[in-house]
Write a structure and sequence with these properties.
By secondary structure, the chain is mostly beta strands. It is built from no helices and seven strands. The radius of gyration is 13 Å and the shape is globular. 15% of the residues are buried.
Length: 87
Amino acid sequence: MSGDKTLENRDGMRVDSKGNIHAAGPGGIWIIAPEGRHVGTILTPEKVANLTFGDPDYKTVYIAARTTIYNIRVNTPGLPCNSCSSD
């Protein structure tokens, strides 16, 4: 093990309507295309632990970081998290 702790305690991962994976990673939320290409990063000022898409149109990403909950509007809506339902 390298001792690099940049990924510790990160488990957030969601998929948008284009099949892109949004995952907690170094520097913020990494966006990975279905073929595995890194298409961008939503930069955050602190380490990210988890994330989800929300609001009625699923175009807001809610980001749980070390001390703050952030939200950012995106162009591509996320897919609903079926396992997140309280039904």
